[in-house]
Amino acid sequence: MGIVRKQSILSSIFIYIGFAIGAINILLLFPKYFTPEQIGLTRILLDVALLFATLCTLGAIPITLKFFPFYQDYLPKKKNDLPLITILLGITGSILLLVLLPHFKPLIIRKFGARSPLFVEYFDLVYPFAITLVFFSILEAHAWSQKKTVLSNALKEFAFRLLTTVFIILFITGILNFNQFINVYAYIFLIPVLIFIYSLSRNGNFPLYFSISKVTSRLKGKMFNFALFVFGGAMLNIIARTNDTIIIASQSSGGLSDAAVFTIATYLVTVMDVPQRSLISITTPFIAEAWKNRNLAKIDSLYKKTALNLLISGMAIFSLVLLNIEDAMKFLGKDYQALGMIVLISGIAKLIDLATGLNTQILLLSKYWKFEFLTNMLLVALSIPLNYWLTKRFNVIGPAYGNLIALLVFNATRFFMIWKIFKLQPFTIENGKAILIGFLVLLLVYMLPDTGNIMLNVAIRSLSFILIFGWLILKFNISADIAGLFEMIKSRVKRF
């Protein structure tokens, strides 16, 4: 786990800095200088663009992640035709988007015109947003496969949010009006795409070889079948994970205003994703290599270690958010009073997702990858009707309940599949200890008295939880990786 740990630390640094900048954007700047409808517009544009971008990749990303080790082992770097194949898929998908999507615009107007007219007005910005995301995603997959995960996370998590801050400042100072702001925002991934191209091609790691290689000739059938199913599964997964905001904007009584509340709640919960994002990008090529070499012991080790570490970090972040959510609602004002319940329900759902570890990557990169498609079908079949019905019944809180039910069934199904097929499961006694410690420390810190000052409350509760929880995790040696990381930091501090 040496390489994994080192890159995980560097990636997490960029991701956490990015999330800190994002917190300033989402919790301070956007609520102060933008209306709830304008905030909701930025979120729904991103979600819809992500949905279409996934569709337009036409399977290029799973092809890269699954088959790159074969191209790397059996071809000279300059004769690797995989980059060109994936770029051509992205271009084809983007052209299809430009040709087909205009025919669906009347439907968009009917569904969103009443509750979210601002989205209808700026709907055409989906095109540049989605197309730049297509090529960013393809280049990111190549960076992951080449173990350049630090660059990938720096661009996706840090640069994106920093550019958002720059655009907001230009809006606040009057250099941009809202129309100009939202138009610039739609091209926000263009600069990271250009940086990716420069970085990957500088050392010859992204060659455009215009002949069909022997690897492609031999594997093209498997690649097509794999891409067809996994691409379909990825598409279903994105639909399941973005339909909540889209349904809120079209069906909730508050439209884009409710979408803004859900956006802030989702952002607070998404902070729990930070360790998972860095671990996925780092461990994916190792899992792919392990499957190629049929090294089940390595996969078992990665499965257990990552699940435990994700559970510990998820418990810590979720507890910190819960401890400070009341003060956050006081700070944001009466328009955001539904925040607490959404965060609680969505946080539990995310904790379940984290606790089951990297089940997606293990299934996706194995010979049983078709189960990835089937389980994503299950997730969509559950989430869309649940979110639609519960939004109509409970407005903005409804999708939180829907996501909790869908993710619980989804992850339980994958857990039993992996256990049944590979005899692998991610849990040890240490996982139970981590949950117990987190719950007890959360209750203890929650009983601390209110100081009457929001910032002082946040500082005292957060610091108290981090110190007690961290000390107990180290005291009982719950995670060898976390203990090793602590010892490394301690030794470096001593040397300094």
Q: In sequence order, what are the helices and strands, one letter per element?
A: HHHHHHHHHHHHHHHHHHHHH
Helix content: over 70%
Q: Look at the structure and give the mean pLDDT.
A: 87
| Total count of strands | 0
Count of the separate structural domains: 2
Low-confidence stretches: none
* Rg, Å, rounded: 23 Å
Largest sheet: none
Q: Shape from CA axes?
A: globular
Number of H- or I-type helical stretches = 21
Percent in strands: under 5%
What structural class is derived from the secondary structure elements? mainly alpha
Distance between termini? 25 Å
Short description:
The chain has 21 helices and no strands. It is mainly alpha-helical.
Task: Give structural notes.
This protein is mostly helical and 496 residues long. 81% of the residues lie in helices and 0% in strands. The protein has helices at 2-33, 36-56, 60-74, 82-100, 105-112, 117-121, 126-145, 149-172, 178-185, 190-202, 214-251, 256-270, 274-292, 296-332, 339-355, 359-364, 370-394, 398-422, 429-446, 454-475, 480-495.
Helix-strand layout with pairing:
Layout (H helix, E strand, L loop, with lengths): L1 H32 L2 H21 L3 H15 L7 H19 L4 H8 L4 H5 L4 H20 L3 H24 L5 H8 L4 H13 L11 H38 L4 H15 L3 H19 L3 H37 L6 H17 L3 H6 L5 H25 L3 H25 L6 H18 L7 H22 L4 H16 L1
Helix pairs in contact: 1-8, 1-12, 1-13, 2-4, 2-7, 2-11, 2-12, 3-4, 3-7, 3-11, 3-13, 4-7, 7-10, 8-9, 8-13, 11-12, 11-17, 12-15, 13-14, 14-15, 14-19, 14-20, 15-18, 17-18, 19-20
